[in-house]
Amino acid sequence: MASIRKRGKNSYQIIVSCGYDINGKKLTETTTVKRPPGMTDKQWEKELRKIALEFEMQVETGQYLDGSKMTFAELAQKWLKDYAEKNLELPTLENYREMLDRRILPAIGHIKLDKLQPTHLLEFYNNLQEPGMRMDYKYIAKPEFNQMISGKTFVSIARQVGVQPDTISSIAKGNKCSSNTVNKICEAFKIKKDDYFQIVDGDKTLSVERIKHHHKTISTILSEAVNWQLIKDNPAERVRLPKAEKKEAKAYDEDQAEKLLSLIENEHIKYKLAVHIVLFTGCRLSELCGLEWSDIDTRNMTIRFRRASRYTRAKGVITKKPKTESGDRIVAISKTLANMINEYKLWQNGEKAKLGMLWQENDRLFTQWDGKPIFPSTPSKWFKKILIKYNMPDLKFHELRHTNASLLI
């Protein structure tokens, strides 16, 4: 049973026994409450017994949390389990986990909640602006890599590593590759990264926007700690972040857009169609990859956008609802685009016939070679190569959506 001890004129300490530790030391949980003004002795005595009973029940059921004993890392794990996993979509949850595991928890995870100050956060954000904090550096192979794979086929190496043969061929030619690919190679061959690869543009730093994402993550978790009465206020709200430079959304003008369509005329029908759909409907990349044949009506010349395709590390390619309620919409298309879609349908049916039982049947418009839903990053990678091939101004695939808006205006 909870015991009550008066600590001052209007301050009372409630103590609940929690047994003993392995050394025989008595364990207790305590909380301090203050008597509100205006209460009579009888009213306060009744209220204090009620508070003590509630506190005792919280301790016994494991619901009592103490900000003076809990670290930020412990809070983050509780927030992930009790809130994020139940309320956030998987891609968003993975993004939070990545920021926490890679940078936030190693920096401030050990700090007790009641000791966490704005200066700790400011120091962390300053560190994020230094070189070496990015995780997406590109690498090129050193001569030692080609010496190591000499005498082996790209196919055999690709199977051992778990990538495509074209990827190994590209690396061997001296082209850039991702850190993820390099890590797979090093793990497969049991080699050290620094001995066989070198970073390209290693002085690049995290963008201000990315730093703000880290701040938002920390602030969101600490706001929940305030709601749970672990801390009185949120120290993240008292930190001034660096201002990001305002950048205009990039887009092609009418002449550039027309030139692009002319240049890709003889490219693969799958990617040529993808560019036309985004350019003439303004859909998002995730919406493009989420299209199914049931969304296409070439007779009435319309496309319905009602789902989005996203990649997650845990489940691969997943399908989710549009970003907003207005995302479920029907867009009119031209006769030219409708004819191109019909042409693509004939090509895809031919691929199905060639593969037979190897084709993974589903209704997706854009697929991998075996019929599985296309990876959302695939059109972007192809588009980047096309711009380099034809010496076109740099533009992200997503920015074709901006081009659509710009041309409409």
Protein topology:
Blueprint: E1 3-6, E2 11-20, E3 26-34, H1 41-60, H2 72-87, H3 90-108, H4 118-128, E4 138-141, H5 143-149, H6 154-161, H7 165-172, E5 177-178, H8 179-189, H9 193-196, E6 197-200, H10 208-227, H11 254-263, H12 269-281, H13 285-289, E7 296-297, E8 302-305, E9 308-312, E10 316-320, E11 329-332, H14 335-355, H15 378-389, H16 399-408
Antiparallel strand pairs: 1-2, 2-3, 4-5, 4-6, 7-8, 8-11, 9-10
Helix pairs in contact: 2-3, 6-7, 12-14, 12-16
What does this structure look like?
- The structure is a single chain.
- This protein has 16 helices and eleven strands.
- By secondary structure, it is an alpha+beta fold.
- The model has no long low-confidence stretch (mean pLDDT 88).
Number of strands: 11
Quote the distance from N terminus to C terminus.
72 Å
Beta-strand fraction estimate: 5-15%
Shape: elongated
Computed Rg: 29 Å
Encode the helix/strand succession as letters: EEEHHHHEHHHEHHEHHHHEEEEEHHH
Mean of pLDDT: 88
Largest β-sheet summary? 3 strands, antiparallel
Residue stretches low in confidence (pLDDT < 50, at least 5 long) are none
Strands ordered across the widest β-sheet: 1-2-3
Q: How much helical structure, as a percent, in the residues?
A: 40-55%
Structural class: alpha+beta
Specify the number of helices.
16
